[in-house]
Input
Amino acid sequence: MAVVTFLGDIRRAAGRTTVAVEADTVAGALAALGASVGSGFAGLLVRDRVLLPDVEVLLNGRNIQFLAGLATPLGPEDQVTIFQSGLRGYPGG
Amino acid sequence: MAKVLVIHPERCTACRACELACSMKHHGEFNPSRSRIQVNIFLEEAIYIPTTCTQCDQAWCAKICPTNAIVLDEKTLAYKVVDDKCVGCKMCVLACPFGSMVLFPEKGKAEKCDHCLSVDGDPECVKFCTPKALEYLDEDTEVRLRQMATAMKLKETFKEVTVS
Amino acid sequence: MNGWRGHILRVNLTRGTAKKEPLDPKLARAYIGGRGLGTKLLADEIDPKVDPLAPGNKLIFATGPLTGTGASTGGRYMVVTKSPLTGAIACSNSGGYFGPEVKYCGHDFIILEGRAKEPVYLWLDNDRVEIRPAGTLWGKSTHEAEDQLKAETHPEAKVSAIGPAGEKLAFTACILNDKHRAAGRSGVGAVMGSKQVKAIVAKGSQSVTVARPRDFMAASLAVVNKLKASPVTNEGLPKYGTPILVNVINAHGFLPTRNFQQGQFEGAEQVSGETIADTILIKNKGCFSCTIACARVTEVKTGKYKGAGEGPEYESGWALGISTGVSNLEAITKANYLCNELGMDTIEAGVAVATAMELYERGYIPAGDVARPLRFGDAETLVWLIEEMGHRRGFGELAAQGGYRIAERYGHPELFMGSKKQAFPAYDGRGAQGMALGYATSNRGACHLRGYTISVEVFGIPKKMDPFAIEGKAEVSKLFQDVASFVDSCGICLFTTFGIGAEDIVPMLDAATGQGYTLEECLKIGERVWNMERLFNLKAGLSGKDDTLPPRILHEGIPEGPAKGMVGRLGEMLPEYYRLRGWDTAGVPTKAKLKELALA
Output
């Protein structure tokens, strides 16, 4: 079972810090969260198969944007971390 | 309907943006010592309390003013100082028990919070208060909100104790 | 003048005089204020080779044109001097309420020169300036001093003070204002102590004016609304404060643990922002005119680490815990309170403790040299050593000079984790390559604020960059460095840039000063300031050789976790960085670049 860990306010929305999930990909893991955390929860993270802005997902500490995105394969011992960024307009942007 | 400047000290972060907004609105400058609202910071107790004129129903300041320079706005029930009637006698400063009358030495006149009526009736401090420690509400609204907040707490307690 | 008050207060401590001088409008236009104009004044007035603790050094309290205005976060000031820790330029930023009060007394800058014959404090009573004896204050904590000073002057006066650490010339010493806000880095507290100045106290009732009030308020409200709309400045920071970063950086595998020996800390959760919010947090608090309000008002209610104050912030909690292997939040918080009361930079002090712990565990510090064993993870020892350092007694006499001096004394300077003798902050450059470059090239020694590439490497703003990659890091580092230099010169807080950009600040600055500033000019000023700092350092005796990192960072891979095997690829980024800066291969600004920036 892979383990999904929530950081910051996402914990409040989820009502817990970690959830164990069975899934083949990161997308599958996020969808599977609904079973333990509530069906509305996944909608806070993903819309139309795309991660919402301000939501960052790490697989074993690496941002999935540098792996295969939501399609990144998930193994049984893997750690998924979800946090919010939401920094905007920093120098030059 | 009268409006009330509602202060929620528990939300205040002691940033004092209200003092700056006030002095800018009425004097075109940034100067907390010219502000009609003051944040009182009790640092050790971590309690921050903004204070300003509470717009008394029977205002000491209005009653004592010898030139009737302090007048009631019928719509909002706030009191404002009519500048050219004020002679700077400072009786209002003496009379107000809360220290809400601010003296402006250079002009020789008294001032008070008038919910920005002398400008546009849109309180500036409320606009710049991020944690919503200051709100400008119909006088009924805040009372009703507090009643409901109490009722919510009671509701949660009943739920806890009436499980059978 | 608008924005600026138009005056410098020059205090000659040797002669006991205080004189108000006009501020040159052309200089103000070209360098703005704060970091920019403060550094310009210092660079023009002192010999860069001066001994930082000698009377020939100067200590400049530098506000910006936006300090004391209603601009969101418009309460910041800088302390500028030559650092005894690094021998380079020192420029330490602080918030609270002190900066605006200086403007309300009529001054943009306070320049302290010379040395008082005995301890004194400055009392800025609106227009009047008094140099008063501070004999009964010397030796007191910053908190006790503030209470006594208010009693001697005015109950609502604003105070900027040193503690025993600064009085004893500790290189870890800082300056605290409003009890809990620090001009932290580079040992600026020691310079104040060397001049025998305990504090500056200010109470003013004058106004700060702006050139175009309507435009200013419109620009200011726009900034406030943008900050309210950003989840970081409106939710994350107020709720969890900077310690929200603990779990985030730990998950990424570059949270420096036990003096940068590991990249992840098993106790991270216990000292995280989430845990702080659930346990010791009383409420959040704001600095002057701040929309964000990220300060942590905290209390440890019971037990041997009982106490109250503000903190720990991310950097403080990391340096005092995590880097020391300590996971006891209450002990870390107590150590933080002690740093504030005794007047020490939490980053430098924490890393000093971590350095000592590693040296001790490796057997390089003889047991007889220190009253108790120094082991990673030992909470009691952490608190004990911080207190010793604050008073510079026992082993603390040396430890208060910072990790570099400890490591050097015991024959292993390579075990000091820092650059230019200033301790690294809370990101391992091996896991975030932009930070490796930033630490090595920062003009004031290792610093995360000078070029905060974590913004792109973790949070993806304005775009996502792979923390492990080196491509594009030189360019983004230079950009962030120049923008931060500009922001630091205005008098507002760098944290606004989590929700707005330089293009939002320029309208405020221009409406305040009426100078016709454009975004292009402001970014140029930022670059000018950066190069001016560089020139000062070169004249002080530093060189491109000092743009370096310890062997552990350059050659030893992070041993475990997501960033396993990574090293800091500084050598591959530095040449491009120098080129982009318009410097030669030795890191010296070329004549053409200096001419372009009107520095030559």
Notes: Helices of chain B lie at 17-27, 60-64, 91-95, 124-128, 139-161.
